[in-house]
UniProtKB/TrEMBL annotation:
Transmembrane domains' residue ranges: none
Binding site for NAD(+): G94, K95, V96, I97, D98, T116, A117, A118, S119, S125
Species, as recorded: Halomarina oriensis
One term of GO molecular function: glycerol-1-phosphate dehydrogenase (NAD+) activity
UniProt protein name: Glycerol-1-phosphate dehydrogenase [NAD(P)+]
Binding locations of substrate: D121, D168, H252
Pathway this chain belongs to: Membrane lipid metabolism; glycerophospholipid metabolism
Alphabetical list of InterPro entries matching this protein: G1P_dehydrogenase_arc, G1PDH, Glycerol_DH
Binding-site residues, glycerol: D121, D168, H248, H264
Function: Catalyzes the NAD(P)H-dependent reduction of dihydroxyacetonephosphate (DHAP or glycerone phosphate) to glycerol 1-phosphate (G1P). The G1P thus generated is used as the glycerophosphate backbone of phospholipids in the cellular membranes of Archaea.
Annotated EC: 1.1.1.261
Family according to the record: Belongs to the glycerol-1-phosphate dehydrogenase family.
Gene transcribed to yield this protein: egsA
Reactions it catalyzes: sn-glycerol 1-phosphate + NAD(+) = dihydroxyacetone phosphate + NADH + H(+); sn-glycerol 1-phosphate + NADP(+) = dihydroxyacetone phosphate + NADPH + H(+)
SUPFAM superfamilies per the UniProt record, alphabetical: Dehydroquinate synthase-like
Amino acid sequence: MFNKRGWIRLPRNVVVGHGVLSQTAAAVEELHLAGTPLVVTSPTPRKLAAESVAEQFGGCSMVTVEEASFAEVQRVIEEAENCEAGFLVGVGGGKVIDIAKMASDELGIGFVSVPTAASHDGIVSGRGSVPEGNNRHSVAAEPPLVVVADTGIIADAPWRLTTAGCADIISNYTAVKDWELAHRLKNVEYSEYASALSRMTAEMLVDNADSIRPGLEESAWLVVKALVSSGVAMSIAGSSRPASGAEHLISHQLDRIAPGTALHGHQVGVASIVTEYLHSGSMGRWENVQEALGALGAPTTAEELGHSPEDFVEAMTTAHEIRDRYTILGDGVSEDAAIEAATVTGVI
Ligand SMILES: NC(=O)C1=CN([C@@H]2O[C@H](COP(=O)(O)OP(=O)(O)OC[C@H]3O[C@@H](n4cnc5c(N)ncnc54)[C@H](OP(=O)(O)O)[C@@H]3O)[C@@H](O)[C@H]2O)C=CC1
Ligand SMILES: O=C(CO)COP(=O)(O)O
Ligand SMILES: [Zn+2]
């Protein structure tokens, strides 16, 4: 309801660092939001962070969600209406943040994002993604007013969630290439600022890949900052274009074909090896993407994702159908071409 064309809507307070969870109420207080919040969380983050956040707001109401679904968004809306919440605080991974973001958008109240994992750039963006029918991609939603990312908690989260966040950022390279292509071929609206910011974010992450290691709080810092920057690029663009191209389409198809098999970031990372090959052929740039993912310990093959070669090829050949978003996949990649690209790059 707040999405207005031409508006750049950004978080107001972004608080990142060790132990900053304890500053959640203070970061919110500055914004003079009316009323008490409803804290939205899921089972694991509840114990790790949400109970402490709720205490900061005087033991406010809390709702625990189990799955990313519209039924859960509806349940949160009802809970928020029952307790007359002034705003929502999402404490958890991407699922919780999305549910709280979409519920707050529907209710027309503020939203605060407290990510407990750096698994993708949706934790800071104005995009929400809850599967509905055949739709897996994100839609415009209420962006967070405040982001509180405690690097102590995020550094202790399962490492695969962090490598997924890194891979989501690395995929910005190919997303920007797809956006430029769509601009040239289809006159799609394009922002030089948003694409430069998105590309630079991916470059900074890759340049610092050596210092991104499990359990290191500096790594959590780097990844969170990159996710914030990517979210800002999407806000400037007013769409997910700077961070989502053909590699995301392929990942969304994989989510349909074999739901729950792999993390979003890991899928887009592997898919971006192939789409980089489609963009630049044998010039070796796909190898840079592959190396960057490998250096971080993220998957680089369909097998490591848990997907069969057949499913991966099917996702490649059908991905162009799911959204009105022109990319290097054009009007569709033939099965032969998909097998060739995925084989040359070692993805299948
Ligand atoms: N808005 C957007 O632009 C985008 C949204 N998405 C959406 O995001 C969701 C996926 O997000 P993702 O974060 O990968 O998945 P989840 O939110 O499901 O989190 C993954 C798992 O990690 C657990 N967890 C979270 N934080 C911690 C922690 N600190 N320590 C230990 N475990 C933890 C969760 O626990 P528990 O089971 O208790 O929740 C869950 O089991 C999907 O719904 C997807 O559609 C994906 C990409 C972009
Ligand atoms: O995941 C995203 C950006 O990293 C959002 O992209 P989609 O709009 O394709 O869901
Ligand atoms: Zn993504």
